[in-house]
Description:
Elements: H1 2-13, H2 26-38, H3 43-61, H4 65-73, H5 79-86, H6 93-106, H7 113-127, H8 150-175, H9 182-195, E1 207-215, H10 220-227, H11 231-245, E2 253-255, E3 264-265, H12 267-272, H13 279-288, E4 291-299, E5 311-318, E6 324-329, H14 346-350, E7 368-369, E8 375-380, H15 387-395, E9 403-408, H16 418-433, E10 437-441, E11 447-449, E12 465-473, H17 481-485, H18 488-516
Parallel strand pairs: 1-2, 2-4, 3-4, 8-9, 9-10
Antiparallel strand pairs: 1-12, 4-5, 5-6, 7-8, 10-11
Amino acid sequence: MPIKAILSGLCYTYAFPVEGVPHFFPLMVVSLFIFFESLGNSIKKNLLFVLLFSLAYCMSGYYWIPYTLTEFGEINAPFNYMLGALFSLIIVPQYTLFAILFPKLSKLKIPSKNIVIALILTLFEYFVPQQFPAHPGHSWMTFAPYLYLAKVGGVPFFSFVSYWLALSLIESYRDRKIDFVLYPSLVIIFIVNFLFPLQKEEIDNPKQTKIKLVQGHINNLIKISSRKGYPEAVSEVLARYQRLSSEGESADLIIWPETSYPKTMNTEFMTKNSANVPNLLRKVIMTTNSQLVTGGYALANRNNTFYFETEYNSIFLFNRAAEYQAAYHKQILIPFGESLPFGPLNPYFAKIIKNVSFFAKGKEFTVFKLDNGINAINAICYEILFSSFIKKYANNINDPYHFIINLTNDSWYGDTAEPYQHRFLAHWRALEFNRPIVRVTNTGITSVLYPDGSESGNLGLFKEGVLDITLNSKQNPETTVFSKLGITFTILLSLILGAIDYLRKTFFEKIMKTDKA
């Protein structure tokens, strides 16, 4: 069992990007086949298998966690590696829950059991809280642009198909049974995806937005020092962004990455008087004649002590007159980096644990309205990994939106696979919602991710520079089926497939009885 669990975990890892090794979709099917085939009637053995699977997956796929614990939390070896290994306990909680329930599920005497189990797993991965949501459906990105159904069912649909395929292959292997609903369904899925490939739309009289993406490449030492207010570090950061913003082509909108402006801004004061907009930002805007989006810190509550939820991790929009226009405050905070998951105990921990930022949580879904009539919604860092969050955002605004701004700072992860994994998983939101994602990062990878699965030119890791991109937008972009229904589409489809399978089996049973008579 240990060898199978480790092999399954490694196959799961390499279905996703890891630098130096090409990711390969069939490895996901192999991983799931081994995983399901190895589970049995003992909950204890199942949990041990999942633990070993998770350990192999975590230490090979998320090997950058110990590095991050050192950079972000100042936790050195060997304790960073020990804590990194402990993340195995929470890396795939949906599979832990499934392992506990598997003895009961496997004994169910119901028609279309494989479809039911595949749906249950898909629901688990969608609704069970997770730190790093990398699901089987994501690995289908290998087939882009031949992923038309991404706009319809999103990642949950492709995860459902992956689970169903693995379960049916096991049934064929063990019982020599062929799933007569699965294989025609797979043929239809591939035909639809290949006949209607995702592609960049040809837009008549498009609204054009010239965007300048600025990658400052501020290392962590300077970033932390500037945040603490050290004058030399602050000057270095501001001078670099000011210089880069003036390079390249003229732009309608300049975008800086997450927390790039190191000083706290007061949105209330800036709303009352544009003179309260920081001088450096005003100077950049007036010099370039562009609107500006920047990541930074917004004052949340000046009455709190011990730096507990006194600030938001935010994105700010300023217009061409250097006036504050809007802000979005991050809603999904990174546990152990931006908050702690201990609810009412957090204020007490804030007095003791100095390496956690304890940001306040935003509540508003803000639309950034540009001067040319184009709108954008926002996601900070790993918020972009949660399709349910983007769906909620899109469905809670009244205005159409034309692209998604995703600001991030992956400098904490060093020269590892994390920036590639982050970009890979984020790209699915472009497919699901049929909107370009403008990703601007501190140390790379900065680019635009398009809804057809392609990417603009990019600024790679640890490079300082700018990227000038022109976005063409429809005045009223279409809303995808996934944006409206989310996982509901997969639920409805699985019910239909289950009904077809039940009717098929009932029909053949009647024929068999007739023949015997």
